[in-house]
Amino acid sequence: MIIDEMNTTKTRKNRQTRRNIRREALIKKFYDKRQALKKQLVEASGDLEQQLKIIAQIEKMPRDSSVVRGRNRCPINGRPRGTYRKVGVCRALFRSWVMEGYLPGFVMSSW
Q1: Whether residue 109 has pLDDT greater than 70
Q2: Could you count the other beta carbons within 10 Å of the beta carbon of residue 29?
Q3: Cβ 97 vs Cβ 77: under 8 Å
């Protein structure tokens, strides 16, 4: 029973990590087009019909191509929260690496 729960958790993390990788690919693919449409939307601030046409074009794009849908995840274990941008790993992994001395220049405080 415990092993099954661990496997489903691992599978769930892998699935979400794969989904996030797919989202990042869509974000890169549609980034320029989306930014151009947003720029056109700002420039057409007076014409309502033109704005509605541009908004319709943006809405036709995949939802996952929006930048805000991306998620910073730890590449090692897929943890979605507590990921340090500077190091690129989650805080739990970062802490263990610092304790083992793998990351130079970081010292764990103790009191």
Answers
A1: yes
A2: 13
A3: no
Among 4, 5, 23, residue whose Cα is nearest residue 72 = 23
Confidence of residue 10 (pLDDT cuts 50, 70, 90): low
* pLDDT of 35 higher than 90: yes
Calculate the average pLDDT of the chain. Answer: 83
- 20 and 52 fall within a common domain: yes
Q: Is the pTM of this model over 0.90?
A: no
The CATH number of whichever domain residue 89 belongs to comes to: 4.10.830.10
- Say yes or no: 79 and 25 in one domain: no
CA neighbor of 86 nearest in space, from 105, 67, 60: 105
100 in the same domain as 65: no
